[in-house]
Amino acid sequence: MNYQKLDAALVTALKEVHDPETPSLAVFIHTEPVLDLTATAVLENLGVSGVTAGKDVFTATLSANAITQLSEQPWVQYLKLSQKLHLVNARLNSRRLSV
User: Fold this and answer.
1) How is residue 18 annotated by DSSP?
2) Nearest alpha-carbon partner for 66 in 48, 87, 88, 40
3) I want to staple 28 with a disulfide (CB 3.0 to 4.6 A). Which of 3, 47, 80, 98 is the partner?
4) HEC assignment per residue over 36-67
5) First-to-last CA distance in the chain?
6) Over the stretch 42-58, which tens digit does the pLDDT of each residue have?
7) What does the pLDDT look like over 10-52, one tens digit per residue?
8) With the C-alpha atoms ordered 53, 33, 76, 9, is the resulting torsion angle positive or negative?
9) Which residue, 38, 36, 58, is CA-closest to 48?
10) What's the DSSP call for residue 83?
11) Confidence (pTM)
12) Residue 5: C-alpha distances to residues 19, 67, 68 (Å)
């Protein structure tokens, strides 16, 4: 596995995976802008949808083994764990601020 292509959150999440074959990690896959047919086939075989020419960021839920495979591809720039975002306004509105 090429750890230089993984963000810290993804490395941490990979350490907690119990079954390396089960797709359990939502990731952003950053690639070179122009993918050849082989790269496109690899992404599609891993279940990545929307692989089109000119696109360089993809999202997918992948297994630890798939992440390892992608990290070793020369056309993959980096992989980043997708994390749930929380709206700031939702947090502020749920607490009553007194002045």
Assistant:
1) S
2) 48
3) 80
4) CHHHHHHHHHCCCCCCCCCCCEEEEEECHHHH
5) 53
6) 999 999 988 987 899 99
7) 999 999 999 999 999 999 999 998 888 999 999 999 999 889 8
8) negative
9) 58
10) -
11) 0.81
12) 22, 10, 10
Distance separating alpha carbons of residues 66 and 23, to the nearest angstrom:
8
CA angle 80, 78, 39 (to 5 degrees): 115
How far CA 6 is from CA of 34, 90, 91, in Å, comes to 21, 31, 30
Beta pairing partners, 57: 30
Tokens of 97: 């601020």
CB atoms inside a 10 Å sphere around CB 20: 13
Cα separations in angstroms, 31 against 22, 37, 57, 93:
23, 14, 6, 39
